[in-house]
Amino acid sequence: NPGVTATVTIVLALGIGATTAIFSGRNPLSRHDALPISIDHIKPYFKIGAGVYWMTPILEVGMYSFSETNVHFGLMPSVGMDFKLDRKSSMIVQIDYNAALSSGESVLGSSSNAQSYIGLKVGFQFAN
Fold first, then answer.
1. In this structure, are strands 70-86 and 64-67 parallel, antiparallel, or unpaired?
2. Of 7, 64, 72, 100, whose CB is crowded by the most CB atoms within 10 A?
């Protein structure tokens, strides 16, 4: 039918897992230098995470919809930078790649329902 369109939307993507980080250089929060920020106040890092993702894709065709919830094993490598702001605080900028491996049935009926997406995180850290 030429007037019928189909769309697939992921309405729920929840991940739970564990991560570990590898930092380059000294921890900027352990230094007691004053601002302005220099190259010594920037710390790049790499993280790797693994866990499970609950995902519910919905296929909408005209006025009908179909959904299938699956639990996927997934991996999350990340790279980021830690910018020291002062003696007890820093700002982070991080990019994540989330890869949820194929699991269960696809709402489209295909043999693979793997999902992947990229995330950007910006945040602040405070020490006591």
1. unpaired
2. 100
